[in-house]
Amino acid sequence: MKITVRPAAEQDLPSLLALYGELNPDDPPLSKESVDLIWTGIAGQQGRTVLVAEVDATIVGTADCMILPNLTRGGRPILFVENVVVAVSSRRLGVGQRLMAAAVHLGEMADCYKVQLLAADDTYVHDFYESCGFKPLAQGFRHYIEQERPSSAVA
Questions:
Q1: Helix axes 123-131, 95-109, angle to 10 degrees
Q2: What's the pTM value of the predicted model, to 2 decimals?
Q3: CA distances (Å), origin 155, targets 19, 24, 46, 149, 151
Q4: Distances (CA, A) of 74 to 47, 70, 146
Q5: pLDDT given at position 141
Q6: 114 CB burial (10 A radius; 0-12, 13-18, 19+)
Q7: DSSP 77
Q8: 62 pLDDT higher than 80
Q9: What gap in Å lies between CA 45 and CA 43, rounded to an integer?
């Protein structure tokens, strides 16, 4: 089985949305107009790469990577990884490991001093990230912001 990891393109949006539906099944679907507007913002954002993993020309995984400029650590940036998901039917086949290796490679190419992510509080997920070379060195915190606009609206 050949796994190919590459940057996502606009034509990948239906597959990305299906994967995000597996990641967050309670999220309401976005309108096509919202998806197009959001994707335009993502595609134009400097340092942003949404990776997709393909098996037999089918997208089966994704990871959203953002390089953040930084005024510490000698000015070396940080790469943040979000929205990592592998289709249920393609888990435990090496897809996630290939995605994470590609994310780390993006960080290396940008001279980042670290690659950072938050993970669900789940032993399986923690074991996966540790198998990819990540270490649980800090405790993450989140502050969710209440939604004050209709779900189809975009800032």
A1: 50
A2: 0.90
A3: 23, 21, 18, 9, 11
A4: 18, 8, 36
A5: 85
A6: middle
A7: -
A8: yes
A9: 6
